[in-house]
Amino acid sequence: MVEIGAIETRGLRVRRGRAEVLRGLTVSVPRGQVVGLLGPSGSGKTTLMRCVVGVQRVADGTVTVLGQPAGSPRLRRRVGYVTQASSVYDDLTVRENLRYFARVLDAPASDVDRVIDETGLGGQAGQLTGSLSGGQRNRVSLAAALLGAPELLVLDEPTVGLDPVLRSELWGLFHRLADAGTSLFVSSHVMDEAARCDRLLLLRDGEVIADDTPLGLLQATGANDAEAAFLAVIRAREAPERR
Ligand SMILES: Nc1ncnc2c1ncn2[C@@H]1O[C@H](COP(=O)(O)OP(=O)(O)OP(=O)(O)O)[C@@H](O)[C@H]1O
Protein backbone atom coordinates (compact mmCIF):
# COMPACT_ATOMS: atom_id res chain seq x y z
CA MET A 1 0.00 0.00 0.00
CA VAL A 2 1.22 3.50 -0.80
CA GLU A 3 1.81 5.54 2.36
CA ILE A 4 -0.45 8.59 2.35
CA GLY A 5 1.43 11.73 3.44
CA ALA A 6 0.22 14.10 6.13
CA ILE A 7 -0.25 16.89 3.57
CA GLU A 8 -0.15 16.80 -0.23
CA THR A 9 -0.78 19.84 -2.41
CA ARG A 10 -0.90 19.87 -6.21
CA GLY A 11 -0.70 23.06 -8.24
CA LEU A 12 -2.12 25.09 -5.36
CA ARG A 13 -2.99 28.66 -6.30
CA VAL A 14 -4.44 31.26 -3.95
CA ARG A 15 -5.29 34.90 -4.55
CA ARG A 16 -5.74 37.33 -1.68
CA GLY A 17 -6.85 40.77 -2.73
CA ARG A 18 -5.35 41.36 -6.17
CA ALA A 19 -2.18 39.39 -5.57
CA GLU A 20 -1.53 35.74 -6.24
CA VAL A 21 0.03 34.72 -2.91
CA LEU A 22 0.50 30.99 -3.59
CA ARG A 23 1.67 30.33 -7.12
CA GLY A 24 1.14 26.71 -8.03
CA LEU A 25 2.54 24.90 -4.99
CA THR A 26 3.11 21.17 -5.17
CA VAL A 27 4.40 19.95 -1.83
CA SER A 28 4.36 16.80 0.21
CA VAL A 29 4.65 16.65 4.00
CA PRO A 30 5.45 13.15 5.29
CA ARG A 31 3.85 11.70 8.42
CA GLY A 32 5.52 11.43 11.80
CA GLN A 33 8.02 14.22 11.22
CA VAL A 34 8.51 17.84 12.22
CA VAL A 35 8.38 19.73 8.94
CA GLY A 36 9.35 23.39 9.07
CA LEU A 37 7.75 25.95 6.78
CA LEU A 38 10.28 28.73 6.61
CA GLY A 39 10.20 31.97 4.72
CA PRO A 40 10.22 35.71 5.14
CA SER A 41 7.23 37.66 6.34
CA GLY A 42 4.59 37.80 3.61
CA SER A 43 5.92 34.76 1.72
CA GLY A 44 2.61 32.90 2.15
CA LYS A 45 3.20 30.64 5.18
CA THR A 46 -0.05 31.49 6.97
CA THR A 47 -1.97 31.27 3.69
CA LEU A 48 -0.63 27.75 3.05
CA MET A 49 -1.57 26.71 6.60
CA ARG A 50 -5.06 28.13 6.12
CA CYS A 51 -5.37 25.96 3.00
CA VAL A 52 -4.30 22.89 4.98
CA VAL A 53 -6.93 23.44 7.67
CA GLY A 54 -9.54 24.19 5.00
CA VAL A 55 -10.41 27.82 5.76
CA GLN A 56 -8.81 29.45 2.72
CA ARG A 57 -10.54 29.95 -0.62
CA VAL A 58 -8.42 28.21 -3.24
CA ALA A 59 -8.26 29.46 -6.85
CA ASP A 60 -6.84 26.26 -8.30
CA GLY A 61 -5.20 22.97 -7.35
CA THR A 62 -5.83 20.44 -4.58
CA VAL A 63 -4.94 20.05 -0.91
CA THR A 64 -5.15 16.59 0.62
CA VAL A 65 -4.72 16.13 4.38
CA LEU A 66 -4.34 12.65 5.93
CA GLY A 67 -5.83 11.26 2.73
CA GLN A 68 -8.94 13.49 2.78
CA PRO A 69 -9.71 16.79 1.01
CA ALA A 70 -8.62 19.68 3.26
CA GLY A 71 -11.49 21.01 5.35
CA SER A 72 -13.52 17.81 5.19
CA PRO A 73 -15.61 17.34 8.38
CA ARG A 74 -13.93 14.01 9.07
CA LEU A 75 -10.64 15.84 9.61
CA ARG A 76 -12.00 18.08 12.36
CA ARG A 77 -10.66 16.08 15.29
CA ARG A 78 -7.67 14.71 13.43
CA VAL A 79 -6.03 18.12 12.81
CA GLY A 80 -4.99 20.68 15.44
CA TYR A 81 -4.33 24.27 14.38
CA VAL A 82 -2.74 27.08 16.35
CA THR A 83 -2.84 30.52 14.72
CA GLN A 84 -0.69 33.49 15.67
CA ALA A 85 -3.62 34.96 17.62
CA SER A 86 -4.75 33.54 20.95
CA SER A 87 -7.67 31.13 20.62
CA VAL A 88 -8.56 30.80 24.31
CA TYR A 89 -10.72 32.79 26.74
CA ASP A 90 -8.97 35.45 28.81
CA ASP A 91 -11.58 35.34 31.58
CA LEU A 92 -11.14 31.63 32.29
CA THR A 93 -8.20 30.02 34.06
CA VAL A 94 -5.83 27.85 32.06
CA ARG A 95 -7.43 24.69 33.44
CA GLU A 96 -11.00 25.99 32.88
CA ASN A 97 -10.15 26.81 29.26
CA LEU A 98 -8.73 23.35 28.67
CA ARG A 99 -11.64 21.60 30.39
CA TYR A 100 -14.03 23.59 28.20
CA PHE A 101 -12.20 22.77 24.96
CA ALA A 102 -11.84 19.11 25.97
CA ARG A 103 -15.64 18.93 26.23
CA VAL A 104 -16.17 20.72 22.91
CA LEU A 105 -13.73 18.34 21.20
CA ASP A 106 -15.06 15.30 23.03
CA ALA A 107 -11.53 14.61 24.27
CA PRO A 108 -11.01 12.54 27.44
CA ALA A 109 -11.01 14.64 30.65
CA SER A 110 -7.61 13.16 31.51
CA ASP A 111 -6.16 14.98 28.48
CA VAL A 112 -6.35 18.27 30.41
CA ASP A 113 -3.60 17.30 32.85
CA ARG A 114 -1.57 15.68 30.08
CA VAL A 115 -1.49 18.80 27.90
CA ILE A 116 -0.84 21.12 30.89
CA ASP A 117 2.15 18.96 31.68
CA GLU A 118 3.36 18.74 28.06
CA THR A 119 3.28 22.50 27.60
CA GLY A 120 4.88 23.25 30.98
CA LEU A 121 1.88 25.20 32.29
CA GLY A 122 1.56 23.37 35.63
CA GLY A 123 2.51 26.50 37.58
CA GLN A 124 -0.13 28.61 35.79
CA ALA A 125 -3.01 26.11 35.67
CA GLY A 126 -5.15 28.04 38.17
CA GLN A 127 -4.31 31.48 36.78
CA LEU A 128 -6.65 33.58 34.64
CA THR A 129 -5.45 33.27 31.04
CA GLY A 130 -5.77 37.03 30.52
CA SER A 131 -3.15 37.61 33.22
CA LEU A 132 -0.49 35.46 31.53
CA SER A 133 2.41 36.70 29.41
CA GLY A 134 2.04 36.54 25.63
CA GLY A 135 4.31 33.49 25.41
CA GLN A 136 2.39 31.68 28.15
CA ARG A 137 -0.92 32.46 26.47
CA ASN A 138 0.41 31.03 23.19
CA ARG A 139 1.21 27.86 25.09
CA VAL A 140 -2.38 27.66 26.35
CA SER A 141 -3.56 27.78 22.71
CA LEU A 142 -1.04 25.05 21.90
CA ALA A 143 -2.24 22.98 24.86
CA ALA A 144 -5.82 23.29 23.58
CA ALA A 145 -4.68 22.05 20.15
CA LEU A 146 -3.06 18.99 21.77
CA LEU A 147 -6.38 17.87 23.34
CA GLY A 148 -7.67 14.69 21.75
CA ALA A 149 -4.18 13.92 20.42
CA PRO A 150 -4.68 15.01 16.78
CA GLU A 151 -2.67 13.18 14.10
CA LEU A 152 -1.54 16.42 12.44
CA LEU A 153 -0.60 19.65 14.19
CA VAL A 154 -0.43 22.84 12.13
CA LEU A 155 1.40 25.47 14.16
CA ASP A 156 1.80 29.03 12.87
CA GLU A 157 4.93 30.55 14.42
CA PRO A 158 4.50 28.80 17.79
CA THR A 159 7.80 29.99 19.24
CA VAL A 160 7.41 33.74 18.63
CA GLY A 161 8.11 35.71 21.79
CA LEU A 162 9.53 32.78 23.75
CA ASP A 163 12.89 32.92 25.49
CA PRO A 164 15.57 30.49 24.26
CA VAL A 165 14.93 27.99 27.08
CA LEU A 166 11.20 27.76 26.42
CA ARG A 167 11.82 27.69 22.67
CA SER A 168 14.13 24.75 23.10
CA GLU A 169 11.64 22.97 25.40
CA LEU A 170 8.88 23.45 22.86
CA TRP A 171 10.99 21.98 20.05
CA GLY A 172 11.71 19.07 22.37
CA LEU A 173 7.95 18.57 22.78
CA PHE A 174 7.43 18.71 19.00
CA HIS A 175 9.97 15.91 18.52
CA ARG A 176 8.48 13.79 21.30
CA LEU A 177 5.08 14.13 19.60
CA ALA A 178 6.60 13.21 16.22
CA ASP A 179 8.36 10.20 17.76
CA ALA A 180 4.94 9.07 18.99
CA GLY A 181 3.62 9.31 15.41
CA THR A 182 2.14 12.83 15.22
CA SER A 183 2.88 14.88 12.09
CA LEU A 184 3.84 18.50 12.73
CA PHE A 185 3.84 21.34 10.22
CA VAL A 186 5.47 24.32 11.93
CA SER A 187 6.08 27.76 10.44
CA SER A 188 8.80 30.18 11.42
CA HIS A 189 10.49 33.20 9.93
CA VAL A 190 13.50 32.61 12.17
CA MET A 191 16.01 30.76 10.05
CA ASP A 192 17.98 29.41 13.00
CA GLU A 193 14.99 27.20 13.83
CA ALA A 194 15.59 25.33 10.56
CA ALA A 195 18.14 23.00 12.12
CA ARG A 196 15.52 21.78 14.60
CA CYS A 197 13.25 20.41 11.86
CA ASP A 198 13.38 16.94 10.29
CA ARG A 199 12.54 18.48 6.92
CA LEU A 200 12.25 22.00 5.55
CA LEU A 201 10.10 23.77 3.02
CA LEU A 202 11.50 27.17 2.09
CA LEU A 203 8.86 29.53 0.79
CA ARG A 204 9.47 32.77 -1.01
CA ASP A 205 6.91 34.96 -2.77
CA GLY A 206 4.38 32.13 -2.81
CA GLU A 207 6.73 29.54 -4.29
CA VAL A 208 8.61 26.64 -2.71
CA ILE A 209 12.28 27.25 -3.42
CA ALA A 210 13.63 24.28 -1.45
CA ASP A 211 12.24 21.05 -0.02
CA ASP A 212 14.96 19.11 1.75
CA THR A 213 16.38 17.98 5.08
CA PRO A 214 18.42 20.64 6.93
CA LEU A 215 21.60 18.69 6.21
CA GLY A 216 20.66 18.12 2.56
CA LEU A 217 20.06 21.84 2.14
CA LEU A 218 23.46 22.74 3.62
CA GLN A 219 25.20 20.14 1.46
CA ALA A 220 23.40 21.23 -1.72
CA THR A 221 24.31 24.89 -1.20
CA GLY A 222 27.67 24.55 0.55
CA ALA A 223 26.37 26.99 3.19
CA ASN A 224 27.10 26.82 6.92
CA ASP A 225 23.66 27.75 8.19
CA ALA A 226 20.07 27.95 7.02
CA GLU A 227 20.12 31.70 6.46
CA ALA A 228 23.13 31.45 4.14
CA ALA A 229 21.54 28.43 2.43
CA PHE A 230 18.32 30.39 1.86
CA LEU A 231 20.30 33.22 0.24
CA ALA A 232 22.30 30.73 -1.85
CA VAL A 233 19.10 29.14 -3.17
CA ILE A 234 17.69 32.56 -4.07
CA ARG A 235 20.93 33.57 -5.83
CA ALA A 236 21.04 30.30 -7.78
CA ARG A 237 17.45 30.81 -8.93
CA GLU A 238 18.07 34.41 -9.97
CA ALA A 239 21.42 33.83 -11.64
CA PRO A 240 20.10 32.73 -15.08
CA GLU A 241 17.89 35.83 -15.24
CA ARG A 242 20.89 38.13 -14.78
CA ARG A 243 22.65 36.79 -17.83
N1 LIG B 1 -6.76 39.25 4.07
C1 LIG B 1 -5.86 39.52 3.13
N2 LIG B 1 -6.21 40.24 2.02
C2 LIG B 1 -5.31 40.51 1.06
N3 LIG B 1 -4.03 40.11 1.09
C3 LIG B 1 -3.63 39.39 2.16
C4 LIG B 1 -4.52 39.07 3.23
N4 LIG B 1 -3.82 38.36 4.14
C5 LIG B 1 -2.58 38.24 3.67
N5 LIG B 1 -2.45 38.86 2.49
C6 LIG B 1 -1.23 38.92 1.65
O1 LIG B 1 -0.87 37.60 1.32
C7 LIG B 1 0.55 37.47 1.31
C8 LIG B 1 0.95 36.26 2.14
O2 LIG B 1 0.58 36.50 3.50
P1 LIG B 1 0.81 35.42 4.63
O3 LIG B 1 0.15 35.94 5.87
O4 LIG B 1 0.39 34.10 4.14
O5 LIG B 1 2.39 35.45 4.80
P2 LIG B 1 3.32 34.86 5.95
O6 LIG B 1 4.47 34.24 5.26
O7 LIG B 1 2.50 34.01 6.86
O8 LIG B 1 3.79 36.16 6.73
P3 LIG B 1 4.12 36.37 8.31
O9 LIG B 1 5.40 35.62 8.59
O10 LIG B 1 4.31 37.86 8.39
O11 LIG B 1 2.95 35.88 9.08
C9 LIG B 1 1.11 38.79 1.81
O12 LIG B 1 1.57 39.51 0.68
C10 LIG B 1 -0.05 39.48 2.46
O13 LIG B 1 0.05 40.86 2.31
Automatic annotation (TrEMBL):
State what protein this is by name.
Answer: ABC transporter ATP-binding protein
Name the Gene3D superfamilies for this protein: P-loop containing nucleotide triphosphate hydrolases (3.40.50.300)
Q: Name one GO molecular function term.
A: ATP binding
Q: Which residues cross the membrane?
A: none
What positions does the domain ABC transporter occupy? 7-230
Q: Does the keyword Nucleotide-binding apply?
A: yes
Q: Does the keyword Nucleotide-binding apply?
A: yes
Q: InterPro entries under this entry? A: AAA+_ATPase, ABC_transporter-like_ATP-bd, ABC_transporter-like_CS, P-loop_NTPase
Q: Which UniProt keywords apply?
A: ATP-binding, Nucleotide-binding
